[in-house]
Design a protein that fits this description.
This protein is α/β, with parallel strands linked by helices. Helices cover 36% and strands 16% of the residues. It has 15 helices and 16 strands. The chain is globular, with a radius of gyration of 23 Å. Bound molecules: 4'-deoxy-4'-aminopyridoxal-5'-phosphate.
């Protein structure tokens, strides 16, 4: 055992690390000018659903370390799976070779995904999983002699990762506008954002006119659309925009009617977040291509997967000379450490009946959120399973937004941090995305910190 550090030694270590961070790191989605003026919170270790910083302070991991942690941190079965794999091999390639860990992972995966999805193409991030889905859809039609089908439809406000292809099918203006000249053209359908309907309509009278607009795109481009890309049930990164019931099913019907493929991006929604293993299950939908990452490894290691059907797989079969091969692959595709921990995580889902235990937690979270829903500066609380967005508004009646420079979401998160809860907002939306392992008491503490943060911030801005 090493001696615990004294307070002075801890502080000294923190300062040294903070200075080095400021000197060398460039943080994602972070205005570095602001960052360089702040003392960074440095995570040093974790226990269960708590993250612990260099000064020994503990925080509830309120957004699952960016939406990926599932069972908590330092879960013995998962730690052991990584250690056991390390004793065998850390990495070997899937290009022209097989590996025990990736085979076992694929086999286990098939117990969890909808049955028609029989093939898995591994990669290492949500963005790469989406790139692969786009390219598979495109090449599938090229190979089938349906070369005119090369256009894509996606949904405004969608987010599918930060590589050029996944940004092309994305639709978040703030992130994506500047890159527009680099992107391929995509048909963007209106967002199913009922609280601020872009079509100025309301359910049920609208009869889901936003889905009708998708249909209009298909009708205007007969034989041209290869695939529709959508985040099923919840558009996460645009502020936890929850879709009306029946929306996804309607998209599935439209794709079928117009001969296009449906790509469901389950990177955020997958692995229990919405209350079922995958969001598509709630609408009885089976996509032609399904992407996952984040929670696939329980949030331990970067592993991603693009799942597809035997029919699409078969389009790529042919002789070597036919060049029907899918010429795509990432060095760390199907990394054995990632696969081993993914397999262990998926077994936990089965052995501990994790999905069956979710309704009680989801209900506890809903109950805790009720007072926030009535708050004069909360426009809407959107919850789907354990995914929650609390949209803050200046004026509830007029749905008036807080101005961008006020950073109200960020300020609420800073207040919550003082109470031992770590969150990351999306603009004026405070996001809660707890690990599935959070207890009801911890969920209540999480919401209590958000409530007092919302009270404090909205009283002063
Ligand atoms: N798709 C969705 C729906 C996501 O929410 C995200 C990440 N937030 C991604 C794709 C990209 O995943 P990654 O960051 O692993 O590339």
């Amino acid at each position: 055992m090493t001696e615990p550090l004294t307070d002075a030694a801890r502080l000294e270590r923190h300062r040294r690390l903070a200075a080095a961070d400021h000197r060398h790191l460039w943080h994602p989605f972070t205005q570095m000018q602001d960052w360089l003026e702040e003392d960074p919170l440095i995570i040093d270790r974790a226990e269960g659903v708590e993250l612990i910083d260099t000064l020994g302070r503990r925080y509830l991991d309120g957004v699952s370390s960016l939406w990926c942690n599932v069972h908590g941190h330092r879960v013995p079965a998962l730690d052991e799976a990584v250690r056991a794999q390390l004793d065998r091999v850390a990495h070997s390639t899937l290009l022209g070779l097989a590996s025990t860990a990736s085979i076992e992972c694929a086999e286990e995966l098939m117990r969890h995904v909808p049955a028609p999805l029989t093939r898995v193409f591994f990669s290492d991030a949500g963005a790469t999983a989406v790139e692969i889905a786009i390219k598979l859809a495109y090449q599938h039609f090229q190979l089938r002699g349906d070369g005119e089908r090369k256009e894509f439809v996606s949904i405004a406000g969608g987010y599918h990762g930060d590589t050029i292809g996944s940004v092309s099918v994305g639709g978040i203006d703030l992130f994506h506008r500047i890159f527009k000249p680099l992107l391929f053209d995509v048909h963007h359908a209106p967002q199913p954002y009922c609280y601020r309907c872009p079509l100025g309509k309301a359910l049920p009278a609208c009869a889901m006119a936003c889905a009708g607009e998708v249909e209009a795109i298909f009708a205007a481009r007969p034989g041209k659309i290869a695939a529709l890309v959508v985040e099923p049930l919840v558009q996460g990164a645009d502020g936890m925009i929850t879709q009306p019931p029946g929306y996804l099913r309607r998209l599935r019907e439209l794709c079928d009617r117009h001969g296009a493929l449906l790509v469901c991006d389950e990177v955020a929604t997958g692995w229990g977040r919405t209350g079922t293993t995958f969001a598509v299950e709630q609408e009885g939908v089976v996509p032609d291509l399904m992407t996952m990452a984040k929670g696939l490894t329980g949030g331990y290691l970067p592993l991603a997967a693009t799942l597809t059907t035997e029919a699409i797989f078969e389009s790529f079969l042919g002789t070597f000379e036919s060049k029907r091969t899918f010429f795509h692959g990432h060095t760390y595709a199907g990394n054995p450490l990632g696969c081993a921990v993914a397999t262990a995580s998926m077994r936990l889902f089965r052995d501990h009946r994790i999905i069956e235990g979710l309704p009680a937690r989801i209900e506890a979270l809903r109950r805790a959120l009720v007072p926030l829903d009535a708050h004069p500066h909360v426009g809407e609380v959107r919850q789907r399973g354990l995914m929650v967005g609390v949209e803050l508004v200046r004026d509830r009646g007029r749905k008036a937004e807080y101005e961008y420079p006020l950073r109200v979401g960020h300020q609420v998160c800073l207040e919550a941090r003082r109470q031992g809860v770590l969150l990351r907002p999306l603009g004026n939306v405070v996001v809660l995305m707890p690990p599935l392992a959070m207890t009801e008491a911890q969920l209540e503490a999480l919401v209590a910190a958000v409530r007092s943060g919302v009270d404090a911030v909205t009283a002063r801005v």
